[in-house]
């Protein structure tokens, strides 16, 4: 196929997609899936994270399909969309990391007075009590991530479940905390701690 014919064919596909043609969209998806996947993976180094971001890129592409008829270079347009989604993802990870570190700093700050020592012990005791009340599988996953410092991939490998299965257990832990914990600081601490690993 000549370059000119390929460009014409692509513009025709874009025109069809802009009108809601799902078959035309599927052709573009198959043609560019590997390109987008390889680009995102260069930065995430995670298959599952890459899959999620790539899915978001193409979903957004479909939702904004009316704009495609005016696109001159679809590959450039697609990679720019992928770059924006990747940056959103990385910024989100940084925000979660910062919030997590802020909470930990409050919990682990040096205790100068007997009152500070008592407060820390009380906080630690409540934290452990909450974790012990989690459903068995949630508690196991939580302790492996927080206390053992294992990543989602490492937990999945050790428990022989999928990474999404590990995430599901952490989401259940979040739900449990929201429904059963009254202490607002403890609730915030655990929810942010869990979110950091999701």
Outline:
The protein is mostly helical and 198 residues long.
Name the average pLDDT.
78
Main sheet properties? none
Give the DSSP E fraction (strand runs of 2 or more residues): under 5%
Order of helices and strands: HHHHHHHHH
Q: Oligomeric status of the shown chains?
A: single chain
> What is Rg?
23 Å
Task: Assign a percent range to the helix content.
Answer: over 70%
Show unreliable segments.
1-5
Specify the structural class. mainly alpha
Question: How would you describe this protein?
Answer:
It contains nine helices and no strands. It is an all-alpha fold and 198 residues long. The longest helix has 35 residues, at 74-108. It is elongated. 18% of the residues are buried. Mean pLDDT is 78; it is low at 1-5.
What structural keywords apply?
9 helices; 81% helix; elongated; mainly alpha; 198 residues; disordered N terminus
How would you summarize the topology of this molecule?
Elements: H1 3-18, H2 22-44, H3 47-63, H4 74-108, H5 114-132, H6 136-146, H7 152-159, H8 163-180, H9 184-197
Helix pairs in contact: 1-2, 2-3, 2-4, 3-4, 4-9, 6-8, 7-8, 8-9
């Amino acid at each position: 196929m000549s370059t000119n014919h390929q460009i014409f064919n692509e513009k025709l596909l874009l025109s069809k997609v802009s009108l809601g043609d799902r078959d035309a969209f599927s052709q573009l998806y198959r043609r560019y899936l590997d390109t987008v996947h390889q680009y995102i993976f260069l930065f995430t180094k995670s298959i599952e994270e890459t899959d999620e971001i790539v899915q978001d890129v193409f979903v957004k592409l479909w939702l904004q399909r009316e704009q495609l008829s005016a696109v001159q270079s679809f590959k450039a347009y697609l990679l720019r969309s992928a770059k924006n989604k990747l940056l959103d993802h990385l910024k989100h990870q940084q925000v979660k990391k910062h919030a997590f570190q802020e909470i930990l700093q409050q919990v682990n700050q040096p205790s100068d007075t007997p009152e500070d020592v008592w407060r820390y012990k009380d906080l630690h005791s409540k934290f452990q009590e909450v974790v012990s009340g989690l459903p068995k599988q949630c508690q196991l996953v939580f302790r492996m991530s927080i206390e053992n410092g294992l990543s989602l991939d490492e937990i999945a490998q050790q428990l022989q479940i999928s990474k999404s299965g590990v995430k599901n257990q952490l989401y259940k832990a979040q739900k449990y905390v929201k429904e059963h914990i009254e202490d607002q600081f403890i609730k915030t601490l655990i929810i942010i701690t869990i979110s950091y690993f999701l």
